[in-house]
Amino acid sequence: MKVTVLSGGVGGARFTRGLLAHLRMPDVGRGRPSEVTVIANTGDDLWLHGVRVCPDLDTLMYTLGGVVHEEQGWGRRGESSHMAADLAGYDVGGDWFTLGDLDLATHLARTQLLREGLPLSQVTERLCRRWQPGAHLLPMSDQEVETHVVVDGPDGGEQLMHFEEWWVRHRAAPAARRFVQVGLDTASAGPGVLAAVLDADVVILPPSNPVVSVGTILAVPGVRAALEATTAPVVGISPIVGGAAVRGMADQCLRAIGVETSAAAVARHYGRRAEGGVLDAWLVDTVDAGAAAELAADGWRVGVAPTLMTDVPATARIAAAALALVLG
Amino acid sequence: MKVTVLSGGVGGARFTRGLLAHLRMPDVGRGRPSEVTVIANTGDDLWLHGVRVCPDLDTLMYTLGGVVHEEQGWGRRGESSHMAADLAGYDVGGDWFTLGDLDLATHLARTQLLREGLPLSQVTERLCRRWQPGAHLLPMSDQEVETHVVVDGPDGGEQLMHFEEWWVRHRAAPAARRFVQVGLDTASAGPGVLAAVLDADVVILPPSNPVVSVGTILAVPGVRAALEATTAPVVGISPIVGGAAVRGMADQCLRAIGVETSAAAVARHYGRRAEGGVLDAWLVDTVDAGAAAELAADGWRVGVAPTLMTDVPATARIAAAALALVLG
User: Main EC class of this protein (chains A, B) (predicted)?
Assistant: First the structure.
C-alpha cells in the first residue's frame, strides 16, 4: 500500500511517526507491505549565516529518525549551543533563530552538497541515509521557494518578512495581511512529488498548518491538479481542536486568509474533491462532534476520534482512524 | 611609527603579539605612538561545508585578541567540537579539518557577511571589532586566491591539492613538486595593502613560512614592487633555526622550490634589496651565528639574537632586536 503525506514540520512529523508505527503492526495491511512517501513543505527554508536551513525537512528527519528533541518537537535531542552563544559576540543578527551545534551539522552537510550542485531532493536523500526515517522524504520542490508574510510597514504601507522571522522571532504577533510564496511562480514540483500523489493508494493531509505548510505544498504547480486527478482517496486530520490550534499559531495564519479557526472551517477551506477541493474525508477530534455533524449534513464523509498526538501509540490510532475512514 | 608586518598564521601571529607588547613599553618610540598593520596571507583560505575559512586571519585575530588556544597556536581557547563530531555521521568528507564550535561562529559570521556582498577586507574589519587585535588586519587580497600543491598523481602525472589538505590532512607527506596560487593572476592587493608597505616606517617579515605564507603575499600583484619602492627598511626574522623549521613543515615547502632549509639559504631566497630582493636586514638565532658571519661577509646586515618565541616577553625582545637592526 502506497501512502503519501503532505507535511509541514512538527505536527506532520509526529503524525507520520504514528502512521509508520500503525503500518508496522502485524495485523495491518493484510500482508501488503506499505510504503510511505512524505512531501515536505520547503517554504519555511532560509539562508542563515550563509547556510541553508530547512526547518520542516529537518524536523521530519529527526522525528522519524528517532533523534528529535521530544518536548520541543524540533531540533536534536541532547543539543548544545556553543556556536550560537559565541556567534552572538559578532553582532551580525539572526540570533532569533536557534542554531544548535548538532543541528548545524545538518545545515553544513546540506549546504556543502547544495554548493556541490546537488538538488535539494538528492541532498535530502543523502542526509536520510544517516537517519533512516522509514519513509521517502521528498522536498515539495528543488527550487528555492520562501514564504514571506505581508505585514504593516512603519509608514502605513506593506512590509515583507520571511515567514520564519515572523513566526519564530515575532511569535506571529504582527498582523499578517497575507502570505506570499517568493519563487513559487517559477518553481516546479520536485522529482517524484506528482507521481507520489498520482500513484498513491491513499493521500493524507496530516494536522499540519493548513495555510503555510499544506497550503504551500498545494500551491506548487501541479500538486493541486495531481490531487484532483489521483484515484487515491484523500483524507485530512483537523489541526484545529475545540476552536484552537493544537500547536503553533495556525489561527494567526487562518485569520490572514479569512478562515475561522474551527475544524469545520478548515475542512471547507480545503474543500471536497466532489466540489473542486482536495479532500474526500475529514477526521476531527471528539470535542468537535458538533462540527462533524454539521459537515456530515452537508454531505461530507467525516470521522470523529481523539486526535491529540500525546504519544506514538495514540498517534498510531489516529492514523488508523484516518485510514479506516477512506479505506474501510 | 608605522610598522607593517607580512604574516602567515601561527608564527606571524605570535611575532606580532610580541611586537605589540614591545611597542607598548613606556621607553619605546620616545613618545611616537606606533601603529601596526598586518598584511595577512589568505592563500590558505578555503570553502569547507559551504562556509569560508581563513586560517591565517583567524589565527591572527585570536592570537592578538587574546583568545587563541595557546598550546595549539591556532583555534579558540576552551573550544568544543560538538558540531564536528556530529557532522562525521553524514559522511560528507572534510573531517580532516578541525571545525570547533567557537571557531565555526567566526566562519558563519564571515560567510554571512561575504554573502551579503562585503569584501573580505571589510568583513575582517567587522570581525575585528569584536577581538580588538590592536593592529590593522588586512587580507592580502579581497579576491579568492588559493594555494594548491602540485603532487605526484596516481598515473605518474601531476595532481593538484589544496594547500590545507596537503598540510593538515596529509601532514605535507606527499612530495610537493611546486605550489600554484589559483586566482592570483586576476587578484589585486587588498585596500590599504600597498599603502601599508609604501607609507611604513619599517616593514617586517616575521618568522612565517617563506614559501606559502610570506611568499604568497609577495606574489600578489604590486606587493613586491611596493617593497622595492618603499623608503622603509625591511627586516626579516629567520623561521629556520639550526637547520630546521621552528614550527610546521617549512622544510617540505623550501625543498619544493629548491631552497635549502637553513637561515642563510632563506635569506638569500628573499634576497637583499640592493640586489633586487626584498630585505635590508636579517635576524638569525644565536645557534646560527655561523650563517650570520657568512652573510655578513657577503655584505648583509645581519643580527643575532635568541629567536625562539617561548613567551610574549621573549617575543617582544625578538621584535626589539629586529627593529634595532634597521632603526638603530
Answer: transferase
Instruction: Show the cell assigned to B136.
Output: 590593522
Strand partners of residue B203:
B4, B234
List, as ranges, residues 52-111 from A with C-beta within 8 Å of B.
52, 76, 80, 82-84, 86-87, 89-92, 94, 101-102, 104-106, 108-109, 111
* CA closest to A117 among chain B residues: B50
A104:B104 CB<8 A: yes
- ipTM exceeding 0.90, yes/no: yes
Residues on chain A touching B90 (C-beta within 8 angstroms): 105-106, 109, 126-127, 130
From B220, B238, B151, select the one nearest B184 (Cα to Cα): B220
Would you state the pLDDT for residue B27? 75
Say if CB B236 and CB B282 are below 8 A apart: yes
**Interface contact A130-B105, CB threshold 8 A:** no
Q: Return the residue of A nearest to B129 by Cα.
A: A90
Flag whether residue A178 sits within 8 Å of chain B, measured between CB atoms.
no
Q: Is the dihedral of CA B141, B205, B130, B66 positive or negative?
A: positive
d(CA A120, CA B324): 60
Model confidence pLDDT, tens digit, residues A245-278: 887 788 889 999 999 999 999 999 999 999 999 9
Contact check, Cβ <8 Å, A105/B90: yes
Per-residue confidence (pLDDT) for residue A32, from 0 to 100: 74
Segments in chain A forming alpha helices (H) = 10-23, 55-64, 82-87, 101-115, 120-131, 163-164, 193-198, 214-219, 223-229, 250-256, 263-270, 289-297, 312-327
Residues in chain A, pLDDT under 70: 29-31
Residue B190 has what pLDDT? 98
Query: In a 3-state reduction of DSSP, which class is residue A161?
Result: strand
Is CATH 3.30.1380 the right assignment for the domain spanning B2-142+186-327?
Answer: no
Between residues 124 and 153 of chain B, which touch chain A (CB distance below 8 Å)?
A: 126-127, 129-130
Q: Is A216 helix (H, G, I), strand (E, B) or coil?
A: helix
* B51 with A51: Cβ contact below 8 A: yes
Cβ–Cβ below 8 Å for B50 and A111: yes
Average pLDDT in the B143-154 region? 93
Per-residue pLDDT reduced to its tens digit, A45-60: 999 999 999 999 999 9
User: What type of residue sits at position B65?
Assistant: G
DSSP string, A84-107: HHHHGGG--S-TTS---HHHHHHH
d(Cα A142, Cα B49) in Å, to the nearest integer?
20
Name the region of B205 (left: φ>0; alpha: ψ -120 to 50; beta: rest): beta
